[in-house]
Amino acid sequence: GEDRMKIVEEIKKWKQKKNAVILAHYYVNPEIQEIADYIGDSFYLSKVAVGLKEQTIVFCGVSFMGESAKILNPKKTVLMPDLTADCAMAHMADAETIQKMREKYEDLAVVCYINSTAELKRHSDVCVTSANAVQIVKALPNKRIFFIPDKNLARYVAEQVPEKEFVFNNGYCPVHEHMQLEEIKKAKEQHPQAEILTHPECPEAVCAISDYIGSTSGIIAYAAKSSCKEFIVCTENGVRYELEKQNPDKKFYFAETEPVCPDMKLITLEKILHVLQTGENEVHITEDLRKESGKTLERMLELAK
Ligand code: 13P
Ligand code: SF4
User: Fold this and answer.
1) Nearest to 129 by CA among 91, 156, 169
2) pTM, whole model, 2 decimals?
3) CATH of the domain at 143
4) Is the CB of 264 under 6 A from ligand 2?
5) ipTM above 0.90, yes or no
């Protein structure tokens, strides 16, 4: 409505005033994706943050994303519209277990999904995202891999890289882990021609019935190039916005209980405007932690080239 247009105008004005740019993940609400300067998956967003000319980054996503942007761009101001937007999975590993595994196995690479705290990144050897995990694990010289925090992405990567030995951790994304298999099967019965597109954070049973498995960007790229006209999408429902935008002639279905990440949905236009105006909710990180966790992100960017 009119109020929304007013807020959008104000955001544009304040963006210029503060020399700011808006980054958004595909899971945030459509009205945020509409006004974002850059939208993408976790890998794209971590790459694009490097080399932006603007001084301030407003990061519409969860805390590990803003933190990663700050780690890679220490001189920039990174603002989070809502500091409480956090990824549950990012905390599902611990330094003591990493240490134990390092003692137990010689020649172990600790591979850290970017969905993790800076503290976990610091104790790891390299970061990955769902878009580059297979490529990076293959490129590592180590035969044994301890993959944290996500057990589902770990299992998927392990299947793709059978020449390596995996040690698994017990983390998961609550949104993907609780995807309803029965509902997906029901959707397939209702739309037998539809292809099933799945994020690798999903459990094995969901992956097993899928036609494509990949990151949010991977899913979006696959849907655009497929000759199929309808799809059942097994990831967070925010991707619908870009899928429908790119493919007005195609149909996208979700499980009846639509997967929603409540943290991603905390981002609103009002909160974006507020941080632009006040400079509140800035991401801070100590220089030691930044340097040590930064090594793992930089190694990711290097190996994913
Ligand atoms: P990607 O966008 O990298 O596929 O990540 C999915 C996700 O869960 C981000 O929180
Ligand atoms: Fe974390 Fe899952 Fe939300 Fe992504 S969808 S931010 S992995 S809780």
Assistant:
1) 156
2) 0.97
3) 3.40.50.10800
4) yes
5) yes
